[in-house]
Amino acid sequence: MNAFFLYAFVGASAGVIAGLFGVGGGLLMVPVLVWSFQANQVSPEISVHLAVGTSLAIIVVTSISSIVAHQRKGAVLWSIVRKLVPGLLMGSLLGALIAKQLPSVWLGRLFGTFTLLIAFQMAFQRARPILNNDDGKPIPNNNLEMFSIGTLIGGLSSILGIGGGSLTVPFLTHRHLTMQRAIGTASVCGLPISFAGAIGFIFIGQGVIQLPDGCTGYVYWPGFIGMALFSLLTAPFGAALAHRLKDLQLRRGFSIFLTFMGIKMLMI
């Protein structure tokens, strides 16, 4: 029962964060799931892989709620989404296969290092001219270039168990979009990433004997149910808050959040 309340609290928090920052909530859920598994004597050899796979499955639900909320605000640039999706799907499946080859401890260190790098980038990124149109400029119009960018984002996101917002948001703001539009668009990109990544982790986890009861591959369903239910309910609140805060406030909040979680993962 204590575990359920933990999952409920983290799921609710992840939902707000997903709506607020467009990150899917994995940056919060993965560390908590790892700590929960370790406290319940799940083998350290698989704890991070299990946390990543479960997080990706939860983000499927979180993303849908966040997408609906941001679309109502007109913050989703679908022209960009369409160009990124093929690469996101390919990268997510490849990322799951790569993650299978990584020891759990190195997967955790990679997660922590990555979040700190993104936090630094967002904290010190210079302000750029803002474009509010949805014609894709100055986003690359070359389909091959966008496929490559999508593959990179999808691959890293799948390996780390995140929705891709921590990569997609900096990329879009670097290309002159407001934080609100970058977050709204990133929330959509999180859906193909998480779906393909979760399928991949279910596949690579088949036959792993150390898995606890309640798993299908590297997805732990009790954790999924507890977190997904409450994240679904709270994501719209985060999205509403994102459209009330100023651009600089969102950047600073985003970087502080990433710094905290990155340090925590490096300490596991």
Which features would summarize this protein structure in a list?
two-stranded antiparallel sheet; 268 residues; mainly alpha; 1% strand; globular; single chain
Helix content: over 70%
Biggest β-sheet: strands ordered side by side in the sheet: 1-2
**Total tally of structural domains:** 1
Q: Which series of helices and strands comes N to C?
A: HHHHHHHHEEHH
Work out the strand percent: under 5%
Shape: globular
Extract low-pLDDT stretches: 127-137
Distance between the termini: 24 Å
Total helix count? 10
Q: Describe the main β-sheet briefly.
A: 2 strands, antiparallel
Give a written overview of the molecule:
By secondary structure, the protein is mainly alpha-helical. The chain has one domain (2-266). It is built from 10 helices and 2 strands. It has a two-stranded antiparallel ribbon with strand order 1-2. A hairpin with a 2-residue loop joins strand 1 and strand 2. Helix 4 (78-100) runs parallel beside helix 8 (179-204). The longest helix is centred in the N-terminal third of the chain and has 26 residues, at 47-72. The radius of gyration is 17 Å and the shape is globular. The model is unreliable at 127-137 (pLDDT under 50).
What's this model, at a glance?
With 268 residues, this protein is mostly helical.
Provide the fold topology.
Elements: H1 2-21, H2 26-39, H3 47-72, H4 78-100, H5 104-124, H6 143-160, H7 165-174, H8 179-204, E1 215-216, E2 219-220, H9 221-242, H10 247-266
Antiparallel strand pairs: 1-2
Helix pairs in contact: 1-2, 1-3, 1-9, 2-3, 3-8, 3-9, 4-6, 4-8, 5-10, 6-8, 7-8
